[in-house]
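Side project, low priority. Logging it here so it doesn't get lost.
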Amino acid sequence: MSTSAPLPQSPPAVRVVCVVYHPGDELATFARTLATSSTAPVELVIVDNGTDPTVAREVADEAGARLVASGANVGYGGGANLGAAGATAPWLVVANSDIEWQPGALDALVAAGEADARAGSVGPALLNTDGTVYPSARELPSLTRGAGHALFVRIWPGNPWTRRYRAHERDAGRRRAAGWLSGACLLLRREAFEAVGGFDDGYFMFFEDVDLGERLGRAGWTNLYVPQVQVTHVGGTSWRAKPASMISAHHASAARYVRRRYPHWYQWPVRRAAVLGLRLRERAELRAAG
């Protein structure tokens, strides 16, 4: 009686990068549901931006993942770049630890990307815990629309700039190209990601996905929204105890994006108005947060 040697396992086609900062139980749920999302081998890399790696190490050991300690809080984009470094898989996923995968979701995302040779990024529909759809595929912000939205959304919610900013919400169920896709759960063609230099780690958190989507588009890639694929985003697990820090980080990144996208001298007046609007809105939100 003879036995044949087992066939060598193909290398993973996807590296999943999960950036964490003092995670809780949600990280174990992320890893557990990720295992149901693909029938093919998946490489999981957990990047720990925090100071206590206990939870991340336990989950990594249980899931057979690789743990990368950043040594400092380098932000979301910076952590994602660390986790993606040296990848050989043709596809990368960057995802928050509070994502809960549905069975087959990752396979479906990869299939959508492989069917479109110009898809540089592919995003699923992000479901809130109540089943509603979070708007995760949007147009790129324009200077005038951004300024109008920032200045008037609180005092005049129905203003034309905000209506235009939120126009994407009418297309939440349609597969389409978008200006940018949410980095909460994002499939990236590694070739495209590396060609544009990855995330700009100058964004500590927030707007790194907007910036990446813009650069992918400028380089000729498509940001493809596929709402037929769904994952659940529990939301905000790392920052629930620090709303003021989250508010300030969001507005600082928004101001950085405005300045970097519109650097010309003749754009100064509207650029200045947008940044001023962001500062005023930040102060109002900080007061409301207590």
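Brief comment: The radius of gyration is 20 Å.
Revisit when time allows.
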